[in-house]
Structure formats: structure tokens, C-alpha cells
Amino acid sequence: MAYVVAVLIVVVVLLASIGLHELGHMIPAKRFGVRVSQYMVGFGPTLWSRTRGETEYGLKAIPLGGYVRLVGMYPTAAAVEAKEPRTWAGRLAADARAASAEEIHPGEDNRAFYRLSTPKKLVVMMGGPVMNLLIAVVLLGIAYVGIGIPGTTTTVAEVSQCVLPASSTATACQAGDPAAPAAAAGLKPGDHVVSYDGTAVTSWTQLTALIRASGGQTVPLVVQRAGSPITLTVTPIVTDRPVLDANGNVVTNADGTAKTRKAGFLGATPTTATQRMSVLSLPGQVADRTWQTMKIVVALPQRTAQVVSETVNGQPRDSSSVVGIVGVGRLAGEIASDKAAGVDLGLRAVGLLEMLAALNISLFVFNLIPLPPLDGGHVASALWEGAKRQVARLRGLARPRPFDSARLVPLAYGMFVVLGGMGLVLVWADLVNPVRLG
Fold first, then answer.
1. Catalytic (active site) residue 354
2. What percent of the chain has pLDDT over 90?
3. Which residue from 152, 190, 356, 387 lies 20 to 30 Å from 130 (Cα-Cα)?
4. C-alpha separations of 44 from 58, 59, 67 in Å
């Protein structure tokens, strides 16, 4: 039941994200006077529609996108002084201009999208992707600020009794193993670390860095025990320890083994507790996830080829593999139905919210690719038109004609085929070789 509910939640949130994305285009367009003839969620046959004012609102059968029809998206043939087409690409552009011109009612040429100034065009076209980014901020805010995620505290959970050799596979102390410095100094589970070598401790990650840097040195460790401060004297032993990144995660070699280096070791592990982040930390979280998504989108053709190779050769897909809409639903179901130890309802909810936020960040980044038919293609066209106008103004020349964006229609068709093909490939791979969480 949890699996099914999670899939339904993904469908609802996806439709809401699409609808809000299109609202991000429609609201500023209407405010700027552009006539919006249609607002549709989905593609294909219309399931339901109602006309309110001059706009038809509706739902279509295939919930993989949506659109708002802005009247006059392409300049008319007269506005760009188009010549008689001689090639198939020219004919496609001419047909697009003609179809766009037919939507402009007599006397309403001033309400055509192509008549807007460059800043207004940018606001209209950026409104959709920015709406997806705002949705991601809200979802991550609920997850991190409202619910919280497990994190280490500065309270000791366990104290090692010995130092196991780095090359050992044993999990228990053996005769001859040296005593761990924490146990030797009298550190106990439940002790709350206050300071280390005179430095106030605010996080376990900070304490780990201090311990690693003080190998072989004898330093004071102040802990709170039963409400009273106690000063212990510890001497971290120098031994091979895993290399950690800035976030405290273990850095691995190419073969998957942990990188190690000589560092101080104390022999204590922290307790974990659900911790809520500050609202001020949200921008950094969103910025980092957006940057990581941008790197994935740049490498999308290569990653898609890797998915095909793994699926054709019968290899399991990596957990970081790109997925399609089917994969998103499957992962949502697995997150919601995870019954592993320590995974409670709050943690499952956070996982689902993180995935939905990642989906919206992907929509934000993907739609900004500067190629038609994506929003980024229209943004690039508007910027090019605006740049030409500014150059003409600075040189004292006459205002140039609108940019003939209809000439990009053949490219838009080609991109539609490419993107549709990639989507079908990912659906196929998600069905026959799905990504699994565990």
C-alpha cells in the first residue's frame, strides 16, 4: 500500500509541478497583455477543458508535460520581411509563421508575444523554470526545516576498547591489540563533548578533524557527564584512517576501496538524532543540488549511452544512473516501503520529498538548455534580439526587425525527436533493468 501511495503522490506532484510551471509562463504573459488562448496540462487527446474568458483550461491524456499557447509566438512574415521559402526548412518556418499569425485577432497585433520587449519576454519564459525551482525550495524546506534528517551529535554513543589494524577484517578486539585512547582516558557512552584541546566543539565533524590533526599529542578533552563538566586527558594514536571529504564522507579509490592516510584516532562514535536545519541553510542546499544537476544534464547523452550499454549487456545499473518517469515512480515506491532498521516514517517522507525536489530542479535546469523547443531556446532568442537592438541603438541605427524565431522550428523538431528518443530509452531501461536502492 505504501508503494502505491508513493507512486500516486509522485503523479500528483508531477502534475502540480507541470501546472505551476505553466502558470509561471501564463501569469506574466497575461499581465503584459499577451492573449493566452490555451493552458493545458499534458499532451495528446483532451480529457477535460473549460473556457474562462479568452483562455481554454484543460487536462490531456499524456501527463508528461504541458503548455500555454501564447498568441503570436513567432513574428509575422511581414514583420520579418520573409522571402518565399525555397527549402524544406524554409517551408517549415513559413508554416509556423502562418499558423502563429492566424491566432492573432484583427486589431490585436499589439497583444502578440513577439511584440514584447526583451525584458518582458525573459520574464515570461523564465517564469516556468523559476516556478520549478521555487517548488524545490518549498519541498526541501519541508524536508529539512520542518521534518529534519538524521545527523551526528556531540554525544558519545560507543567507545572502542582497542585499535584494530587497518588491514584486519576482525570486528572484535583480539589479544595484543592496543587499547583505544578514548577507553584508556575514561571516556564513556553518554558523555557530551564540550571542548577539545581548548576549542569549543559544535559538531562531530569538527571534533573528528581536531582528533585527526592531533595524533600523538596529549590534549585535554572536556565532557559533560551527569550534568557536571569533567576534564579528561587523551592521546590520539597515529594510525591509518579513511580520508574524508568536506562533508565527512569517506573518499574511495577507483576500485571502490577507501583511501587512507596517517591520522589521529581516538576510538569513539557519536549518537545520531533527527536534526532540523536552519532556513538560512536552504539556499546553499538548493544551489549545491542545482550545480550537481547541471553537471548531470551536461553529461546526459553520455549517461544515457551508459544506461543502454548496461541494460543490453545485462549489467546492474548504478544507483546514480539517470532514470525516466517510470524509474522515478519505482524509486518513490521503494523509498516509501523501505522497512530497514532505523528507517522511520519521517525518514521515508524526507527521502520522498528530496526526490520530488530533485525532479523539479531537473525540470528547472533542463528547461534552461538554450535550444528550442525548451524555454531556454526562447530565452536565447530574446537575448539575441535584445542584443541586436542595443547595438543598433548605440550605433544610432534604425531599430532592427524582430528576430525570426520561426527559422528555429526545424531545430525544434529535431530536438523533439532526440529528447523523445532519450525518454523512451530511459523508460525501456527502467522497465527491464531498473535502478534499485538496495
1. no
2. 58
3. 387
4. 11, 9, 12
The amino acid at residue 107 is: G
**Catalytic member of 22, 334, 354, 385:** 22
**Quick one: how far is CA 79 from the chain centroid?**
40
| Higher pLDDT, residue 349 or 318 | 349
- The residue behind cell 517564469 is 127
Per-chain mean pLDDT for the chain? 89
Helix (H) or strand (E) holding 149: strand 149-159
Whole-angstrom distance, CA of residue 397 vs CA of residue 323: 51
Q: d(Cα 215, Cα 303) in Å, to the nearest integer?
A: 43
Peptide bond connecting 373 to the previous residue in cis, omega within 30 degrees of 0? yes
Q: Give the single-character DSSP code of 234.
A: E
**Single pTM value for the model:** 0.83
| DSSP class of 146 | I
Per-residue model confidence (pLDDT) at position 438: 60
Least-confidence region, from 47-56, 114-123, 175-184: 175-184
Q: What is the DSSP string of 54-79?
A: TEEEEEEEEEEEEEEEETT-S--HHH
Enter the C-alpha cell of residue 260.
Answer: 587512507
